[in-house]
């Protein structure tokens, strides 16, 4: 029998999932398979996985417990990159992971550093899963990634890389609360490489880990962009008080109509903004305080892209706009 561990990935066709899949495959350290809902089994992106040699296991995360257990049998490491609106479906996955005897569960983290309890609704939902996972004595590693370079890039007046922007070209470059808060950032393309190292490292078992390419403030990002492009980034200043007012507004709208998708999106985005730029949660100092391990310390020999590296690739047309298939 092969001693190569089997890794099963949920969410392999998503933005984070695609990076994780690529990193796992290229590491040559695992048998890599994908967990897919039966209703999605014939979608073109799933057929692409099959064509690439990825074995597909079928099970619905909202389906029968027995079916989930069956799908997880023989899996050594289960990585969940489930979508933001389905986080609590992982509560059922925890039970299946435990019964199937999976050796390590990677729940869907992959966000910025923040505390639990009313700062970010998304973080609170994830922590419900983590707490249940711990209650069930499931071996785990929580991996957070800070914010992506791909969604931290300001627009320049010439529009020379508008095609790579994760937002509309007409949206202003907002600078929040002075623009000085340090933020943990990772190139989306590096996440999979680091995940592949983290999940086979005994030091990370039952630990929280964050990936990091660079730590930059908004002001520092703008300075890099202006230095490289020779253009002046137009900025819209948003004060701490304005961020707080927005936060109160979107939370009120969400409470009034939680079923409206746009209310959920605006709440997520504004809570990210408040946590990162006003509270300055997404920083190495705060991550250390919370007990996170840092991939820069764990894997000093692993080269990750700097923001300048990323910007050079953007200018060379090598970076595709994220979420482009959903627009």
From TrEMBL:
Entries under Pfam families matching the protein: NmrA
Keyword Cell membrane: no
Keywords annotated in UniProt: NADP, Oxidoreductase
NmrA-like domain mapped to chain residues: 5-275
GO molecular function: oxidoreductase activity
PANTHER family hit by this protein: NMRA-LIKE FAMILY PROTEIN, NMRA-LIKE FAMILY PROTEIN (AFU_ORTHOLOGUE AFUA_6G00280)
Entry protein name: Isoflavone reductase family protein
Organism, as annotated: Pterulicium gracile
Phylogenetic lineage: Eukaryota, Fungi, Dikarya, Basidiomycota, Agaricomycotina
């Amino acid at each position: 029998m092969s001693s190569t561990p089997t890794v099963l990935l949920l969410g392999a066709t998503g933005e984070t999932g695609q990076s994780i899949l690529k990193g796992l495959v290229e590491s040559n350290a695992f048998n890599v398979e994908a967990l897919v809902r039966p209703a999605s089994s014939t979608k073109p992106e799933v057929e692409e996985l099959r064509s690439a040699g990825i074995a597909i296991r079928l099970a619905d995360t909202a389906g029968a417990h027995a079916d989930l257990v069956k799908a997880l049998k023989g899996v050594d490491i289960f990585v969940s990159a489930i979508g933001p609106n389905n986080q609590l479906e992982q509560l059922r996955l925890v039970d299946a992971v435990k019964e199937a005897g999976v050796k390590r569960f990677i729940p869907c983290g992959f966000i910025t550093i923040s505390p639990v309890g009313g700062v970010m609704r998304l973080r609170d939902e994830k922590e419900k899963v983590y707490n249940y996972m711990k209650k069930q004595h499931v071996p785990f590693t929580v991996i957070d990634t800070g914010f992506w370079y791909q969604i931290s890039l300001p627009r320049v007046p010439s529009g020379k890389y508008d095609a790579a922007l994760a937002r509309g070209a007409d949206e202003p470059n907002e600078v929040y609360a002075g623009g000085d808060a340090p933020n943990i950032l990772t190139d989306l393309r590096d996440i999979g490489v680091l995940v592949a190292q983290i999940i086979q490292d005994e030091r990370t078992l039952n630990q929280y880990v964050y990936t990091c390419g660079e730590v930059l403030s908004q002001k520092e990002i703008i300075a890099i962009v202006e230095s490289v492009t020779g253009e002046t980034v137009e900025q819209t200043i948003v004060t701490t008080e304005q961020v707080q007012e927005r936060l109160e507004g979107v939370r009120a709208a969400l409470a009034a109509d939680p079923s409206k998708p746009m209310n959920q999106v605006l709440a997520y985005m504004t809570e990210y903004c408040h946590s990162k730029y006003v509270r300055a949660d997404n920083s190495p100092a705060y991550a250390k305080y919370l007990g996170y391990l840092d991939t820069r310390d764990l894997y000093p020999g692993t080269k990750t892209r700097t923001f300048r590296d990323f910007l050079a690739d953007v200018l060379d047309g090598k970076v595709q706009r994220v979420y482009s298939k959903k627009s």
